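Quick one, T. Sequence first:
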Amino acid sequence: MTPSRAELLQRIDNPPDPWDIIVIGGGATGLGAAVDAASRGYRTLLLEQGDFACGTSSRSTKLIHGGVRYLQQGNLALVREALRERHILLQNAPHLVHGFPFAIPLYKWWERPFYGVGMALYDLLSGAHGLQQSRHLGREATIDLVPTVRRQNLRGGVVYHDGQFDDARLAICLARTLADLGGTPLNYMNVSALAATPGGLATVTATERENGREYVLSSRAVINATGVLCDQVRRMDEPDCPPLITLSQGAHLVLDRSFLPGNCAVMIPQTDDGRVFFAIPWYAHVIIGTTDTPQSTVNLEPVPLPDEIDFLLAHAGRCLERQPARSDILSSFAGLRPLVRGKSGQKTAQLSREYLLSVSASGLVTITGGKWTTYRSMAAVAVDAAAAQGGLDPRPSATRSLRLHGWEPPSPPTGVRNGYGSDLGLLEQVAAGHPLWNERLHPRLPYTGAEVIWAVRFEWARNVEDVLARRTRALFLDAGASREIAPKVAALMASELGYGQAWRSQQLERFDATAADYLPT
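Structure tokens:
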């Protein structure tokens, strides 16, 4: 049975012993580290200042992939590691991660041999972990696969296979897996101070953001997995420490499925800024992205810049027969990447997507960089270091074959409820509990009231944004429709949480402001 938030808070209220490992950060890396630690039998606490995956980890391109761009850069080790981790995720979370075809349309004579060789190398690096072999297509076969591909000067295409997923749903799955393993995942816990001595216990001061209560927690080891905030947390430990990361913004636009109606994504290997461009079917919509815009400061709610929107629309028009306009955008979102700092003057698009492990003099373990695909291997390295720093009994990582919460045998994805996996029957029982809970909240969105109730009861959703942005993906799919259903969601949540009209009004005001940032003017 999933513990309630109140039960989780009781665990940090005067615990009898220090924690073995406290993980700060509830994104992909932090959740992965906490799951890894708990799977080894360590008493594990995870603290996230906002909601799980509320930052970068819910704003990705929704790909579990080796990385064609890293292949172009010659980073074969990173590609090989990512392809191995892709295979592991397909085995451990088949309800959330599945293979998907990608077409590279060819418009110049030299592209067929050039990209054909590149994709053959990609297949070779996949080895036994491959999905399907890449293949060449003629012009008509490319149009059959991608009906809306730009046809002028089209010579054919190359098709390869990679992995697709729902990033925020995988994050919630990891939080529930952590709870299944006896760990304690807590969102809305703001860490404000760290204190540690080499070889001694670490002290973490955190405030529960809903009631303002402050907790002083002891642990044998602490892992800093806070992504773009990792340097801020490091400065709690070492005020003068030099920065480890630099920031880059990646923006995405969401369009109606009519722009790409086939069952195949489109990939353009080279954009004007040196990135790879994708147009990807996702939950009956199309995501296009991404950009690589350097940023100097952390913005917890980044938004696509006007130039980024223009860039994405222009590149979509280069590969699709129909040119999208701003009026076609259903939602737009951006995330900040924590990239390991490179040489002075180096472009962010050229910076490595590999991770960095750092251990301070006091023993704080920081893990940063990387990407969603390699979260599990990053987590194992971080927990190894934390166990050594905390003097814990050394135990091997158990996550390579750990089935994540909701696991069930692989099957073709059928829609948003596919991601609940083995919990789907329980969700349907919730839906049967009220005559209105199985009705769709909006004709343009696939969600019902049952998903809202489920999110509150079993997934620690605390506010309207939690439900519409991360427990469901409504805000990312159609920001306007999300605004329209926010009153219904607030009413359902208030009933479950025991809140009144004042809470509902406050929630609607906050969500309306958030949703406005997802709708470019």
